[in-house]
Protein: Ribosomal RNA small subunit methyltransferase A
Organism: Sphingomonas natans
Amino acid sequence: MSRLPPLPPLREVIAAHGLSAEKALGQNFLLDAQLLDRIARVPGDLDGASVYEVGPGPGGLTRALLGAGAHVVAVERDRRCLVPLIELAQVVDGQLTVIEGDALDLDEAPLVGRGAHIVANLPYNVGTALLIRWLSDTAWTPWWASLTLMFQKEVAERIVAKPDSDHYGRLAVLAQWRSTPRIAFTVNRAAFVPPPKVTSAVVHIVPADAPEGVRLATLERITAAAFGQRRKMLRQSLKSVSGAIEALEALGIETTRRAETLSVEDFVALARILDAPDG
Ligand code: SAM
């Protein structure tokens, strides 16, 4: 149940402020309150929780998050959206802070605080860049408690992919070696205004324990080489990574296998050997 005061319909807000969706900003707005509430439920109970929202646009998802009782810091780069967002902030009594800016340039953690949930419906390229940034946090456990992000369904499948599947690759290893991703649900194109070309999906990611003795940079180096030539045998694709073939042999992994057959744990074990002080 939303605890917000009565608000004008989003369509009226969009019309009143001339917020026609701009392709250059990757704008596809969500207006269906039930769907927006469903997204806001993905991180769990938000009553009193801190949320960082990227790209609130006209504020549909923001309303759902505020309605769930969250304190929201929202960053939006489209100036046209700022007036309606500030109007929303005024009626929710300190629950919403609006920042004008580009999320890619923002050092958000000090603004939002530890333990915040990140929630966003973003353009594909911005969402992927931020996902990589958040997954690459050097401190683990990271400052964020969970990520709830809208992606093209195909990208969502790459994030949660298991070995021996076409979608399995660097993104799956990066997303799974020290966090747990899942697809919460898919979202039909028709739910967006205007509809994008493809189906979308909401992905939920929570941090897990980081395996000991492994550096992200080493894992990135191995997966870049291995999946850069994914059709090749490992003895070929990992030739450029010093010590990798010996490490495969030490682990009893056949060098004739291909990258997509290795589990996330296999990649972690490989990185651990390369990161060992005498490795
Ligand atoms: N969250 C709103 C919704 O669900 O209806 C809007 C979604 S729309 C797909 C993406 C929003 O992100 C737009 O309002 C766009 O202006 C904003 N945006 C795009 N790139 C951004 C960036 N780098 N930093 C902050 N906001 C950005």
Summary: Strands lie at 29-30, 50-54, 71-76, 96-100, 116-121, 144-152, 179-187, 192-193, 200-207. DSSP finds twelve helices and nine strands in the chain. Residues 154 and 200 are 8 Å apart (CA to CA). The first strand starts at residue 29 and ends at 30.
